[in-house]
Specification:
This protein is α+β, with helices and mostly antiparallel strands. It is built from seven helices and 23 strands. It has three domains: 72 residues, Immunoglobulin-like, CATH 2.60.40; 140 residues, Ferric Hydroxamate Uptake Protein, Chain A, domain 1, CATH 2.170.130.10; 199 residues, no CATH class. 14% of the residues lie in helices and 35% in strands. A hairpin with a 2-residue loop joins strand 8 and strand 9. The termini are far apart.
Length: 495
């Protein structure tokens, strides 16, 4: 700067020096004015506006808000200092972290501020500052979710005591809406659990994969309902014919979703070890509802409508005629205009009714429910009807030292399916014949009989001649008795 100053004209250098002197004087004057104003703020002077003296203006001298320094010490419930605790003014970025002795200090704290004290694993506290300049805070452990009970292979444990990977979904967190099968309650709720449907056929098996395939054959998880393991194999019989069979049925379809209280998913080897190789692909623990001391009665119903969102685009009658005339055999053309997908698709209705009631006392409780489900598929002749009933009871005896529990679930499932699944050859599968059907062929002859295709099978005839009809009756029950031998030790038996 000095070197550059020598190159400037003398008059310009003199003007810069005078400006610097002026700035110093102005800064000093402002400092003196502010200092005098702070000294004079002791008592505000207020002129009464109602004095009627129009010659005097109303003068109000207000006190400026005093910012201050707040300090203190953060300790735990054992009075031990806590280093690394975040202390921050709510709604601002002003804050600090406690030192090794748990002490903190925040300067320039405006009045009416709120101090937010937080630390991982501890309950966050908010303290109004007010007139305080020293604020000591005691933090307690956060109990959020630590006392939540989860179901594991050996019974139940508090979440803080579980060492394995367990995902839990309670009733208040279940998916809402029209729920037709139990796994839909937790779909998208548990990390690492992928649930997909193959075709949407009523009663069809859902594919559930927990943390990826656990075995070479990639089977499904093991289901345990109220402590009872069940076979997860499909109830669809194998049929040796040239016609396609229905898809695999859902092993959980006999359960009413409205009767389920919680679903726990055991993901890793330590959680599923009690079940051995059966739990290689994970274990899904389902706990059904039990009675409570409060009398209750519930009725719920739903009605839903399903349609095919988008049909496969195929040639229209005119396009097919042009194509066949140019490149094919025109002799196969007829006079009809048939959309064959309209012949196999329909608007489907689903209705669901549930009634449940329960009650009792602290020593004796009961719960009972009945339900009816009628689900139509969007493909003709695809339908499922389910009737379920459930009853559970609990009785405590001998000063609550003996506890007896009883659960019983019974169901009747009726399925009707079109020939749309595996097992059919090219001439016996409904959708293959629908896709290949000639749009100029009629569905029926003039006399009302079904038109016989000269090549392939009429989809309407397939629906008429084929029936995949199944009835499945299932009863699942268990009795559990526990005896408290002495405090902290129980003997339990489950049959």
């Amino acid at each position: 700067m000095k070197k550059r100053g020598k190159d400037l004209p003398e008059s310009l250098q003199r003007a810069l020096r005078e400006r610097r002197v002026l700035l110093r004087k102005v800064s000093l004057l402002l400092f003196l004015v502010v200092s005098m104003g702070l000294v004079a703020m002791g008592t505000p002077e207020i002129t009464n506006p109602e004095s009627g003296d129009g010659d005097n203006d109303v003068t109000v001298l207000q006190t400026l808000a005093q910012e201050k320094t707040v300090r203190g010490i953060i300790t735990d419930t054992n009075k031990q200092p806590m280093p690394g605790v975040t202390v921050q003014l709510k709604g601002t970025t002003i804050g600090t972290i406690t030192d090794v002795s748990g002490a903190y200090q925040i300067s320039d704290v405006p009045p009416n501020s709120i101090l937010v004290v937080s630390f991982i694993g501890m309950a966050t506290k908010e303290i109004p500052v007010g007139d305080q300049t020293e604020i000591n805070v005691t933090l307690s452990e956060s109990t959020l979710n630590l006392d939540e009970v989860v179901v594991i292979g050996y019974g139940t444990q508090r979440r803080q005591e579980v060492t394995g990977a367990v995902g839990s979904v309670k009733e208040d967190s279940f998916n809402k809406g029209v729920i037709l099968s139990p796994e839909q309650l937790m779909q998208g709720k548990v990390s690492g659990v992928n649930i997909t449907s193959r075709s949407g056929e009523p009663g069809e098996e859902q594919t559930i994969v927990i943390r990826g395939p656990g075995t070479v054959r990639s089977g499904g998880p093991l289901y345990v309902i109220d402590g009872v393991p069940i076979d997860n194999a499909s109830t669809t019989p194998s049929v040796g014919s040239a016609l396609g069979t229905a898809g695999a049925s859902n092993p959980l379809i006999f359960l009413n979703p409205a009767d389920i209280a919680s679903i726990d998913v055991l993901k890793d080897a330590s959680s599923t070890a009690i079940y051995g190789s059966r739990g290689a692909n994970g274990v899904i623990m389902i706990t059904t509802k039990k009675g409570s001391a409060t009398e209750q009665f519930n009725y719920s119903t739903s009605l839903s409508i399903s349609q095919v969102a988008s049909k496969l685009k195929v040639m229209s009658r005119d396009e097919f005629i042009d194509y066949t005339t140019q490149l094919g055999d025109p002799s196969i053309l007829k006079d009809s205009d048939t959309d064959w997908f309209d012949q196999i698709y329909r608007t489907a209705f689903t209705q669901n009714h549930n009634i449940s009631f329960g009650g009792g006392s602290e020593k004796s409780k009961y719960y009972a429910s009945i339900s009816y489900l009628d689900q139509e598929g969007v493909v003709e002749k695809s339908e499922m009807k389910r009737y379920t009933g459930k009853i559970s009871a609990e009785q405590k005896l001998v000063n609550d030292r003996i506890n007896i529990k009883f659960n019983l679930t019974a169901s009747h499932v009726w399925n009707d399916s079109p020939p749309s699944g595996d097992g059919g050859n090219a001439n016996g599968e409904l959708f293959t014949n629908t896709l290949n059907a000639n749009p100029t062929y009629p569905t029926h002859n003039p006399d009302g009989s079904i038109y016989q295709f000269p090549d392939g099978l009429n989809p309407v005839m397939l629906l008429d001649m084929y029936t995949d009809f199944r009835k499945t009756n299932r009863v699942l029950g268990n009795v559990e008795a526990s005896v408290e031998l002495f405090k902290g030790l129980q003997y339990k038996i489950n049959v």
